[in-house]
Structure formats: C-alpha cells, structure tokens
C-alpha cells in the first residue's frame, strides 16, 4: 500500500487534489499535512474526512524537527507538495513569510525525503507544484514554455522560483526523483475570496465595489481547478523523473473583460437588471510590480501525457458561479472567520 503525503490539502487546489486521490485510489493511504493558516479550511474537504484512506495531520512545514519526525514515522512513498503562501498582494506586505513557507518549508521536505529515501529511490517521487509566475511577465506576444528563463517579479514568484531551483538542485545533486509543474491561474470551488474571481463573486453578491487594479488591461491564463487536479494526478503517475511540465488552459483573458463577463452572468443568475453589477467596478491604485501578461504553452503535457482541459472557460465559470451561489454558507463561514473553528470541533 502506498503512503502519499499531500501538503496544503486544506487549501484551494490542495483540497481538490486530496479529494481526487482519496476517491480514486482506495489502496493509497493519503496524509494531508496542513498548518491551517488563514488559507487552510477543513470545510473544503469535509466530504472525504471519514474515508478510511484519509488522514489529516496539522503541522507546519517550516518546523524542521516536526517534518523529520513525520517522515521517520510514516516513510512516505510519494509527496505532492502544494503548501505555500500563495497570494501576491500578501507577499508585497510580508515577503519573509513567503520565504519561510515557500523556500525553507520546501527545503525541509526535500531534506526529509532525501534522508528517508537515501538507500533506495525506487518507486519514490517528490512532486513540486509551482506557478507560471516564476517566468515573469510576457509582452503582448509569446507563451511561456518549459525552457523560458526564470524572471520572477513579485516576492511570491521569487519565493516559488527559489523553491523550484532547490527541487531541481536536489535532483541533480542527490538524484532525488522529482517532477515539477508550473501552472497558470486557477479558478473554481473552495477558492479563498481574496483572489480575483472568488473575491468579485462575493462582492457582487453583497453589492460591494469591485476593485480593478490599474487600467484592468492585465492578462491571465485561466484554468479550471479540477482540470489542474487531473493534470497533477497524471504527472504524478506518468510524468518522467527530473522533468518539468507547464499546465495551462490556452485561455487568456484581460482582467477587465473577465470582470465584465462575470458581472453579466451574475446579473442573470441573481435576477438583476443587466448592467447592475458592472456599476460596482471601481478602478483602484495598481499593484506594485504588476505583471502584464501570463500565458502558458501547454503542448508538452498534451503531447507527452495526453492531458487537455475538460471544460471551456464559459463552462468552468458557470460551474464556479453556481457553486458559490449554492454554497453561500461556506462563503459566510470564510468571511466571518468561523471556518477556523472546524478543526477544534472535529479533531480536538
Ligand atoms: P492556498 O493559499 O489556497 O492554500 C495553501 C495551503 O497551504 C493552505 O491550506 C495553508 O493552510 C497551507 N499552508 C500554508 N503555509 C503552510 C505551512 N507553513 N505549513 C503547512 N501548510 C501550510 O493555495 P493554492 O491556491 O491552493 O495553491 C496551492 C499551490 O499551487 C501553491 O504551491 C501555489 O504556489 C501553486 N499554484 C497556485 C495557483 C493558483 O492559481 N492558485 C496556480 C499555480 C500554482
Ligand atoms: P490574483 O487572483 O491575485 O492572481 P495573480 O496575482 O496570482 O495573477 O489576481 C489576478 C489578476 O487580477 C491580477 O492581474 C491582479 C488582478 N486583481 C485586481 O485587479 N483586483 C483585485 O482585487 C485582485 C485580487 C486582483
């Protein structure tokens, strides 16, 4: 039986990965390690918490002694590492928190895996989940490929770039069997309402301003989170060691166009007169160092592993909006802060 450690499984993408692995692989023992920071919410995975192959471990990847002991106790066969500080705006306010979790935390996991597996790397795998933001910003043309040089601009992307380099270095220096993916912006259910799409859905529901940074002419390449989870599953099982794969939806949107589409769909869903939500758009001071454009060339993962997104953006956005409207309690618990009590109620 395989013992798999998934870090950050109470977060947005991690919860989708944990759910997928718990449901699809009953022979695996899945250990979800999460510090439950503001972004960690056990309500995200309450549907699978009673499965016999699921185990939750509360802990901080920055705590070296704790990580070493965890690996000694469980001798994991595979690691999917998603735990991170993930929000660019927060990284501008507190860069050191990003260095601690994203760089030191990743180092602790790499060291623990290396020390645990040193005599035998057979059927072992360290999978590092990263972002396309490590490549920096594109101009009007071109796409990020796996060979695009790293050129991070925000403290978030610099910390993720640093962790990516350490993962590669452990592969080269110690032979650690790793795979690495760099993915574009995700959207979908259980997304913390500080990122563009869930924040704006929440604000539209509550008739609050929609703060568009700068002129809104920034471009992101959006991918439905369940398609990302499917890609992660595929790379974990079929990717080649020491390889990087870019994951993206071939789905570029200027922020302002996306926001207008969101407003239009929300007006329809909420039975409001067309144009009502657009009136909430407020142009605000730009984010410092704001990357102009991200866009992924996902042809390698498509050609080599056969992955492609399963939904169009219109379908994914519709599913996402429906989920938020049907799960207003989740949204209320997150915005009121009461989601923090869930661990106490279930695990203490
Ligand atoms: P998230 O912020 O929603 O979740 C992060 C999770 O990690 C939370 O559950 C949090 O409690 C946990 N965590 C944070 N610090 C920790 C620590 N020190 N120890 C243990 N757990 C800790 O993030 P996300 O959006 O789900 O992103 C997951 C991963 O995917 C990250 O590595 C991120 O860089 C990467 N990624 C995200 C996107 C995106 O669009 N969200 C795109 C590409 C890559
Ligand atoms: P975000 O969801 O924070 O993801 P990232 O910065 O990792 O791409 O932001 C997506 C885009 O939306 C980005 O160009 C910044 C912009 N944005 C706004 O205009 N207003 C907001 O309130 C937020 C959170 C983001």
List bound small molecules: nicotinamide-adenine-dinucleotide, thymidine-5'-diphosphate
Low-confidence stretches: none
Radius of gyration: 20 Å
- Count the beta strands: 12
Name of the level-1 CATH class of the domain at 3-190 and 222-251 and 294-312: Alpha Beta
Catalytic activity: dTDP-alpha-D-glucose = dTDP-4-dehydro-6-deoxy-alpha-D-glucose + H2O
Family: Belongs to the NAD(P)-dependent epimerase/dehydratase family. dTDP-glucose dehydratase subfamily.
Keywords: Lyase, NAD
Cofactor: NAD(+)
Structure description:
- The chain has helices at 12-24, 64-74, 88-93, 95-117, 155-174, 196-205, 225-238, 255-270, 299-305, 313-326, 328-336, 341-347, and strands spanning 3-7, 29-34, 54-58, 78-81, 125-131, 178-183, 185-187, 210-213, 219-224, 243-247, 252-254, 281-284.
- It has 348 residues and is of the alpha/beta class.
- The chain has a domain at 3-190 and 222-251 and 294-312: 3-Layer(aba) Sandwich (Rossmann fold).
- The strands form three sheets. It has a seven-stranded parallel sheet with strand order 3-2-1-4-5-6-10, sandwiched between helices. Strands 7-9-11 form a three-stranded mixed sheet.
- The longest helix has 23 residues, at 95-117.
- The protein is globular and about 65 Å long.
- It binds nicotinamide-adenine-dinucleotide (NAD) and thymidine-5'-diphosphate.
- Nicotinamide-adenine-dinucleotide binds at residues 7-8, 10-14, 34-37, 39-40, 60-62, 82-86, 101, 105, 129-131, 160, 183, 185-186, 192.
- Thymidine-5'-diphosphate is lined by residues 88, 185, 195-196, 199, 211-213, 218, 220, 255, 287.
